[in-house]
UniProtKB/TrEMBL annotation, chain A:
<feature type="compositionally biased region" description="Polar residues">
    <location>
        <begin position="415"/>
        <end position="424"/>
    </location>
</feature>
<dbReference type="GO" id="GO:0005886">
    <property type="term" value="C:plasma membrane"/>
</dbReference>
<protein>
    <recommendedName>
        <fullName>Ammonium transporter</fullName>
    </recommendedName>
</protein>
<feature type="transmembrane region" description="Helical">
    <location>
        <begin position="194"/>
        <end position="211"/>
    </location>
</feature>
<keyword id="KW-1133">Transmembrane helix</keyword>
<dbReference type="InterPro" id="IPR018047">
    <property type="entry name" value="Ammonium_transpt_CS"/>
</dbReference>
<dbReference type="InterPro" id="IPR002229">
    <property type="entry name" value="RhesusRHD"/>
</dbReference>
<feature type="transmembrane region" description="Helical">
    <location>
        <begin position="6"/>
        <end position="26"/>
    </location>
</feature>
<keyword id="KW-0812">Transmembrane</keyword>
TrEMBL record, chain B:
<comment type="similarity">
    <text>Belongs to the P(II) protein family.</text>
</comment>
<keyword id="KW-0597">Phosphoprotein</keyword>
<keyword id="KW-0805">Transcription regulation</keyword>
<dbReference type="GO" id="GO:0006808">
    <property type="term" value="P:regulation of nitrogen utilization"/>
</dbReference>
<dbReference type="GO" id="GO:0005829">
    <property type="term" value="C:cytosol"/>
</dbReference>
<keyword id="KW-0804">Transcription</keyword>
<dbReference type="InterPro" id="IPR015867">
    <property type="entry name" value="N-reg_PII/ATP_PRibTrfase_C"/>
</dbReference>
<dbReference type="Pfam" id="PF00543">
    <property type="entry name" value="P-II"/>
</dbReference>
<dbReference type="InterPro" id="IPR011322">
    <property type="entry name" value="N-reg_PII-like_a/b"/>
</dbReference>
Amino acid sequence: MEGNTAWLLTSAALVLLMTPGLAFFYGGMVRSKSVLNMLMMCFGAIGLVGVLWVVYGYSMSYGTDVAGLFGNPFEYLGASGLMTAEGDPTAGTVDIAFQAMFAVITVALIAGAVADRMRFGAWLLFGGLWATLVYFPVAHWVWGDGGWIGEMGALDFAGGTAVHINAGAAALGLVLVLGKRVGWPREPMKPHNLPFVMLGAGLLWFGWFGFNAGSAYAADGVAGVAFLNTFTATCAAMLAWLFVERLRDGKGTSLGAASGVVAGLVAITPACAYVDTWGALAIGAVAGILCALAVGLKYRLGYDDSLDVVGVHLVGGLVGTVLLGFVATTNVGTDGADGLFYGGGAGQLWTQVISAVAVLIYSAVVAAILGLIIKVTMKGGRVSAEEEVAGIDEAEHAETAYDFAGGRGGRPASVDTSVVSGNSRKLEETKS
Amino acid sequence: MKLITAIVKPFTLDDIRSALEQLGVLGMTVSEVQGYGRQKGHTEVYRGAEYAVDFVAKLRVEVVTDDANVEKVIDAITGAAHTGKIGDGKVWVTPVETVVRVRTGERGADAL
């Protein structure tokens, strides 16, 4: 028990680090005038969803089942009954902490779609409502005792449906309602700091070992299988994305490498404990290729998903979840299933597709409805066109990220100006 | 006096500076600028989306000199900045009314 507790505590901390990692992955991709808002949407999600999770979210996901749809929100209200040093902490306090980080990052993932334009308050309101109405119940569907997707036998080891399809579909629903950025797609909106993007991808990869191997809930062989597959698939996905770029655009890019890493991590998430090396390589390679192609869809279809949450997380999540129906195998000694290519027939594939489509539709529809409510009640839910062009950092946070010119003549607004001119008089005296 | 302004390829700056030093030119101002002439920009690709970057990074070198030295300075700059490829830049000359050295108040050629 001590070993398992130690690994789960470590994993929880690793998964928390993913959200700041995501903040930098996303933050480097936006223009320099909106990087702080991007970081703040991610950090804001940690604060808000963290509180909601401990107060009632955990209970809604893992409390006693109500009709297969959600857990009793009052059962563990404020961790009641579980906030104890007695018993197995991996079924109590440490479980709550570990799963909290999943809820946090799932909401934070959506932020990439609405970059540069959504009001911070509107974002927090959306995040809180979406977590309550979508993430907490869907986590119950997939992982809670009695949840209908889990009962159906669908495989999702660490969150292909519950986290990535869920967040990607919500991003799609929300941006369709919120609308495009001013000037998109006519004006170039290129990433302002690619080293941030690479740094963020590295932190995500590191944290993801806690996400996937931690989901074994034990320091055992299952965690080992999940860990190795997480590594293998991600390597393959990065190479695949770069390969597509080399063929299509002529050059492999750093943004492509970072994106391929994340696409691979997303796709292997549901599958990491249920496939062998060949399965992991296939899932990674297919995810790298399909996501590299899918990020172009927004230009064809005309939805402004700023940082490709749909192209990477929805598509990557679908790849992993559906491919499991082909390449899942019990040969690795975990309690998974056999997919079509491993003699299991089409049954598992069908189950995987149903679970993916159900989460996709539910999340996108609820996100769109929440977006509409926010749009009507909060003046569109976004900053004015003038503020957006000047930069959302200044409009929403009264800060700018970079100061290369010594503050542009700024001085403390609260300081009496006579004191300032007094200083310059003193300077004149020293001169003479 | 004349102000000589040169827009040049950034990597030629060191050669220009040593050429001007040999002429006895005692100062210059350098700034990073962007622009385009006959040399067009380049294309960047982010996640498959192509952006045409029209402006090319250049350096602007400014030197104020005596009328007598203008041709020598122009020759030194063009000689050092020349690669023979498109995008080598331009040099132009404008008249300067006067120059004042802030520290001493000297004017005209004495202030150079």
